[in-house]
Amino acid sequence: MKERYPVSMLDLPPLEVARLLRAHQLTAKKGLGQNFLIDSTALERIVAAAEIPPEAEVLEIGPGLGSLTRYLARAARQVVAVELDTALIPVLHEVLAGQENVRVVQGDILEQDPAALMSAGGYWVVANIPYYITSAVFRHLLEARVRPCRMVLTVQREVAERICAAPGDMSLLALSVQVYGQPRTAVRIPAGAFYPPPKVDSAVVRVDLGTEPRIPTEQLEDFFRLAKAGFSQKRKTLRNSLSGGLGWGTARAEELLRAAGVDPMRRAETLSLEEWGALTAVYRQNGG
User: Fold this and answer.
1) Annotated binding site for S-adenosyl-L-methionine: which residue ranges?
2) pLDDT of residue 1
3) pLDDT over 70 at 222, yes or no
4) Three-state DSSP state, 124
5) Which DSSP string corresponds to 161-183?
6) What is the C-alpha to C-alpha distance for residues 22 and 26, in angstroms, rounded to an integer?
């Protein structure tokens, strides 16, 4: 089905990236993972995939030159854009001049409390995040006191596939996201849509978050303890990886797995979230 975009978005002129960088004597900083998304079709598709209601508050991470911010400002009631690079703040003020519903914050999102940035929970996160902090950003937002209701993040295509994986290809990252919400790949973006183009294609992951985690909150600490131990030794059976990760003998690890209905010879990537939940419940029943 063909996507529809509001007229207010379709009349946005392309951002003159080269002129902006030249005027401010800037170049993209590889060390900060700066690849600015400039393709208007990709920007429109991201906002369409987010399905932002007019009354929503949006948190944008790493707005860069403000390409996506302009579109978000047309869709949402309020946009809070957090940018680490101090050199880009003047550019953002220039590009976003007149956008009264946009607040630019200079700082590291990993050191910011979302509760202090947003007026309430249930906000949207829409961003083209630097690839090197993908896992850290997910963890920071999902474990925050005030969580978003939806996250729409542009990441490396391979990372998007890992996040959306099913049992058989699970990872600690997939579990860490899926325990809080349901992820899916919403948009695929070629490397040429960025300036400068990265070496790999990207994808937009949309995660719709539930009001509560799929594992009871009081069990999350033990859930992650087991999951980290289970994935700590690649290509090892769960009996051996749990044994090594928890500092147990193999007999004790095998007993735990069998009590949870899990074959000790399986590997961590084959377990579903529900099976990790069952394993956590037995672990807690036995006193950890």
Assistant:
1) 35, 37, 62, 83, 108, 128
2) 40
3) yes
4) strand
5) HHHT--TTS--HHHHHHHTTEEE
6) 6
Domains of the chain, earliest start first: 7-209 (3.40.50.150), 217-285 (1.10.8.100)
Q: Which residues, in sequence order, are bridge partners of residue 194?
A: 37
DSSP state of 217: G
Q: What tokens does 127 get?
A: 């961003």
What is residue 2's predicted lDDT score, i.e. its pLDDT? 43
Burial 213-234 (b: 16+ CB within 10 A, else e): bebeeebeebbbebbbbbbebe
Round the CA-based radius of gyration of the chain to a whole number and report it. 21
Question: What is the average per-residue pLDDT within 155-184?
Answer: 96
CA dist 73 → 106, 121, 155, 185 (Å): 18, 19, 22, 23
- For residue 288, give Cα distances in angstroms to 9, 229, 232: 54, 13, 18
Q: SS3 of 61, please?
A: strand
Helix axes 238-246, 220-230, angle to 10 degrees: 120
Q: At what angle do helices 273-285 and 250-259 cross, to 10 degrees?
A: 110
pLDDT band, very low/low/confident/very high, at 10 (cuts 50, 70, 90): low
CA distances (Å), 243 to each of 10, 42, 230, 284, in order? 57, 46, 9, 16
Residues comprising the binding site? 35, 37, 62, 83, 108, 128
Band of pLDDT at residue 9, cut at 50, 70 and 90: low
- Angle among Cα 93, 94, 100 to the nearest 5 degrees reads 55
Between CA 186 and CA 192, with CA 190 as vertex, the angle to 5 degrees is 145
pTM of the model: 0.91
CB 215 within 8 A of CB 239: no
- Based on the number of CB atoms within 10 Å of its own CB, is 254 exposed (0-12), middle (13-18) or buried (19 or more)? buried
